[in-house]
# Entry
Amino acid sequence: MREYLYLGAAIAAEVTGTTALKFSDGFENVLPTLVVVVGYVGSFYLLSLTLQELPIGLVYATWSAVGIVAAALVGVAFFEESIDLAGVVGMALIVGGVLVLNLLSESYSPAH
# Structure
């Protein structure tokens, strides 16, 4: 279960870094740029801990899918971006695929 905590923290760090990237103004603003670096380095470190226990396909699929949805929600909440029905359906399909991998696929179970 600890590996999923690492994965959740890795996703949070990556989304934080990506959000800060929006504020960095092409790396002109120092504080957001530092948050980008710390967020991405922290994310990859935590991802490496996750990969000690879980299969790479499962980890990367989960990391990217949750990151996609979280980043889109940050855009809506903080940057006045919008998501249309096609975007919602597309993200739902991505999340659905990751749920299938995590919950149903024997190939991607932690025991393999």
